[in-house]
Amino acid sequence: MRKILKVTFGTILLVLIIIQFYQPERNSDSGKNYTSDFTSSYKVPEDVKEILQTSCYDCHSNNTNYVWYDYIQPARTLVEKHINNAKKELNFNEWGTYSNRKQERLLTSMITQIENKEMPIPSYVFIHREKKLSDIQIKVLTNWLKNPE
Ligand code: HEC
């Protein structure tokens, strides 16, 4: 029995070590400036900008601020999957290239997602506590998003 346990734990440990070597390409553009960025399309107040950049841009832009534990597998693969899916739906860096209709749909969608606490993704916030939106931040964001200028 003991031997089986040892072999099992040994195998699990080995697999965990081996998968660390699989590190997909990072979502990074070395801090490029985009004329089509969301923050160029409106006069975004500083507090709103900061909340968006902290809590949304990691998945919804071409540049993720990774933290050290993002590099640990299998979390890494999961984060990268979130980023790819998120950018397909909404990339703040490409906001200016979207049609008016798409922008309007996304603004409404953002408000709903934020108010329902569906964004940032709960499982992500569970680990990245600093990305969690406080009730005040939710108010600041949604109030501005309801009437962006
Ligand atoms: C951990 C990554 C992650 C973070 C952080 C994140 N999102 Fe998302 N977001 C996603 C993914 C993935 C999707 C794609 C749909 C899904 O899986 O729910 C998505 C979808 C969306 C959509 C739906 C787009 C549509 O077509 O209707 C909106 C709006 C959105 N996110 C807004 C936000 C806002 C606003 C923030 C910050 C408050 C945020 N997201 C933070 C990953 C993220």
From TrEMBL:
Pfam families listed in its UniProt record: Haem_bd (PF14376)
Record domain Haem-binding: where: 13-149
Entries under InterPro entries matching the protein: Haem-bd
Residues that span the membrane, as ranges: 7-23
Alphabetically ordered keywords of this record: Membrane, Transmembrane, Transmembrane helix
The protein's name: Heme-binding domain-containing protein
Organism: Paenimyroides ceti
